Amino acid sequence: MLKILIIYAHPDPQASQVNRLMLAQAAALSHVTVHDLYACYPDFFIDVARERQLLNAHDLIVFQHPLYMYSCPALLKEWFDVVLTKGYAHGDQAALAGKIWRSVITAGAAESAFSQSGYNRYPLEDILQPFELIAALCQMQWQPPLVLYWARKAAAATQHQHAKTYRQWLEQPLLDDQSSVEMHHE
């Protein structure tokens, strides 16, 4: 079984019911490690050696976070900048080569907002391209993201189903990559 590391970044985790549901499902799995960046580094001083040990010990890395200003929360961006440096993750060394990257995103808008005719003007896949490029730079295998659109307004049943879908994927992440990608929306 693949060892999975979930790097969770949410500056206000109590405000996200669906993320709490998803993390509860993930934490119940023995091959999954949940690593909450804001709980570990409220001062933004990241222990780079510790983070790299965690990455090295896992096969599949999940970056779970809300979409913030078309990107990730600030601490996760800082984490990318100080942990995934040249000489470790890319360049002469590629410590993460062959590992799998998957973004798990909660978005505050409906799926229709992420289109040329929507107010965000671009599909979410386009907005997430910088993450896909970081994965490629680190020679990691990119998997399409798992997204819950309109996360705050999603019905409780939708949130629970999304958490269940997430757990099922965590239980068998490589069974069928394409069928595991479900974009839920209201």
TrEMBL record:
<dbReference type="InterPro" id="IPR046980">
    <property type="entry name" value="KefG/KefF"/>
</dbReference>
<keyword id="KW-0560">Oxidoreductase</keyword>
<dbReference type="GO" id="GO:0016491">
    <property type="term" value="F:oxidoreductase activity"/>
</dbReference>
<dbReference type="InterPro" id="IPR029039">
    <property type="entry name" value="Flavoprotein-like_sf"/>
</dbReference>
<dbReference type="InterPro" id="IPR003680">
    <property type="entry name" value="Flavodoxin_fold"/>
</dbReference>
<feature type="domain" description="Flavodoxin-like fold">
    <location>
        <begin position="3"/>
        <end position="170"/>
    </location>
</feature>
<dbReference type="Pfam" id="PF02525">
    <property type="entry name" value="Flavodoxin_2"/>
</dbReference>
<protein>
    <submittedName>
        <fullName>General stress protein 14</fullName>
        <ecNumber>1.6.99.-</ecNumber>
    </submittedName>
</protein>
